[in-house]
């Protein structure tokens, strides 16, 4: 019997030390040698069963009968019960018990340990590298005491060559025996080697779900489960041939063009098609894919079947005939519906456009998938799924990969399983993986969500196909992520004109000698008699002819069409309305009253809410009675009225359910019953659209990307991301730059995403003050030096034409009514633009930041500028100063003006919409006060905030009015390297100086 087993037994019985069972056994126990004690007692039992305590007698007899230690255990109390003891001993004695051989038991346990070693660590000894120059084990060897060979990795047990032909009973946690439960050790090892140490390395034993582990074992260990039939092999070769010939054709026709080819991992194409075939067979109808540049053109051509003419045209210098500046060909996306010939089902295939930030599209894809599942009512992800392709260096190096994985099982973000494919070139641009990551595998990040990881040699196409089928079945059965790591090589440099020998001479010496996988597999099938050499040539020639004909057709094209590369077409949205006419944003007072009343009422029934919330709800009802709204109420009225009109509203971000500043409370929590909530905006009307409000993970990059993807799917939805504090968008800047500000120009892709960014200098330090408005305004394509021509600015549709022609809308509202209209305008427009809202903090409860229902009812609209309506406006010629400002600083300026007695001397005008710039209204305001000094007053520092955007625009207005010599002054904080001070003393001093600059000298 194994000493480890004796040790476990003795520990289970140590608590009996206080009971003197017999004089023979007690002394060794008291000396602490418990395992020696048990072994001696076992020997004593073999000689005379009556010499040990009855409980040990039962235990040893049970073990000898084949029971496991846990099943054999009997408590001493029950053993002293004569009836129980008699029954137990009688049951055991009635069996035919062979004499116990401790060595045999130990050897069987060793076999089980060997099997488990293969299951846990077999991937470390697998033949994964086609170049045979590296493996995960090499990286492990860098650590002291790490395994150095398969023998030490897998067979560090007492069995040796003499045991090879002995038969052993297989444990239940393996499937290698098939129907045979007894195999020789030699056969056991052979089968384990074939499963775990050939061209597939399976990582799954870290998964803490027994059903999932057993399922995975069955998919790899069952004998002959990886075998393909004749037709499957021929299909695989045909797909591999297309993949290879496509890259060869591009290389021949455009020798010096970058294309980021797939040479070295051409097997990716049959891999993706296998996943799509199997998933289509299982019921999936829509596939949304994200990928970096490498292999994108091949995927578009041979997986999505995009017309080859459109791909080839991207290599030509043809003029685009529609909007957009476009992007390089290997960044473009597409959407296409076609028949899957393997399943005879129609499928939709979309590839999301992606910039050179290789993993930036990951959350975009997930958001698009989640949205499509939502609108299809596909609550289990059985109809829509995502496939994400990654490079090995980016998969390990980019933090958004981790952020995206952590969205995978969250209730309002899950897409019910993503299949990740790593196109593993074993190199970055020029960087060796040994200096690019700290983990043995580039895929180790996937372990955080218990995703199984299948490493597979790219030069074994049949192994690749098998893991792809398993991955598709896993995703369908368990609705969880899975990773396929296709280990290959990159035949050329990072791009086709790069020289890799500069930095990887040894690797590329080997690569130059490497036989392409299509040739390896062709020879294999010829040797097997699956097909002939002539048949292989026929397949090649057939596809070559298709390529040549498409190339010839491309010559007849005079222009390219950017719209052909749309990854998110909105069928039935464009062209059905006037391009500049918008629907009204005001609503009836009845609607406002109803929404306000429901929003301010306590939940029905015995729902117990927090006492503090009762006061909040009461104040809302009081506001409704007064016909006014604060910020939270106006926002709820905007949401509620859109829900009434059938528009889905989704609000996502950190702590958005309550609101970071405890103002929103869209989810009420029962105070005594866990997980019991009430969402008032979900109970406004019986036929309303759904309202989704969901707290997110503590992520900006990933979650904002997710919401952008969600917004791209359906134009008739209001999708909002709120930052906990405005400058938290810093960590999502890549998404803002690459998708929000430039997505339409590069990829003809519109999005109505709304960003709510809490902003305001309130003495809370640099991280809780500025939402960095200067960055957003700099990203706007507004020409500050060009005043619109008369025909444009005098057009009756000028306001909406401006919105249509610019890339983003940027607002900084000072009234609840304006945020109400701004949110509703996102849906009323006949097009979609991102909306950036610098939302307030202190104004959420400011007593003066209230709006009458009269500002939100029918006939009202968003106010781009709010002029001064006080005494100074009645006699504008006598005004000494015209102060322009934006946002919450207006209320501070108003209070200071009154305290200085300047209500008749200084006009204060609020600029609510910064971009598009309100040229017409600014001209009117400046003309209205001809003798006033013009001041831009802001609380942000001079090199930040709105001044860098407003100064050139206002100067252009003055020039247009013929008043270029009129002074424009700045009032506010001086330039600074940080957004705000953390000292309350300095903050107050800066504020006083700001007020003095604005109002001194009158």
Automatic annotation (TrEMBL):
GO terms for cellular component: mitochondrion; oxoglutarate dehydrogenase complex. GO terms for molecular function: metal ion binding; oxoglutarate dehydrogenase (succinyl-transferring) activity; thiamine pyrophosphate binding. SMART domains: Transket_pyr. CDD domains: TPP_E1_OGDC_like. Its main location: mitochondrion. Its cofactor is Mg(2+); thiamine diphosphate. The keyword Metal-binding applies. InterPro entries: 2-oxogl_dehyd_N, 2oxoglutarate_DH_E1, DH_E1, KGD_C_sf, ODO-1/KGD_C, THDP-binding, Transketolase-like_Pyr-bd. Its EC number is 1.2.4.2. The keyword Mitochondrion applies. Keywords: Glycolysis, Magnesium, Metal-binding, Mitochondrion, Oxidoreductase, Thiamine pyrophosphate, Transit peptide. It is found in: Mitochondrion. GO terms for biological process: glycolytic process; tricarboxylic acid cycle. Pfam families: 2-oxogl_dehyd_N, E1_dh, OxoGdeHyase_C, Transket_pyr. Residues 629-846 form the Transketolase-like pyrimidine-binding domain. NCBIfam families: 2oxo_dh_E1, PRK09404.1. Belongs to the alpha-ketoglutarate dehydrogenase family. The 2-oxoglutarate dehydrogenase complex catalyzes the overall conversion of 2-oxoglutarate to succinyl-CoA and CO(2). It contains multiple copies of three enzymatic components: 2-oxoglutarate dehydrogenase (E1), dihydrolipoamide succinyltransferase (E2) and lipoamide dehydrogenase (E3). This is 2-oxoglutarate dehydrogenase, mitochondrial. The lineage of its organism: Eukaryota, Metazoa, Ecdysozoa, Arthropoda, Chelicerata. The gene is 107364424.
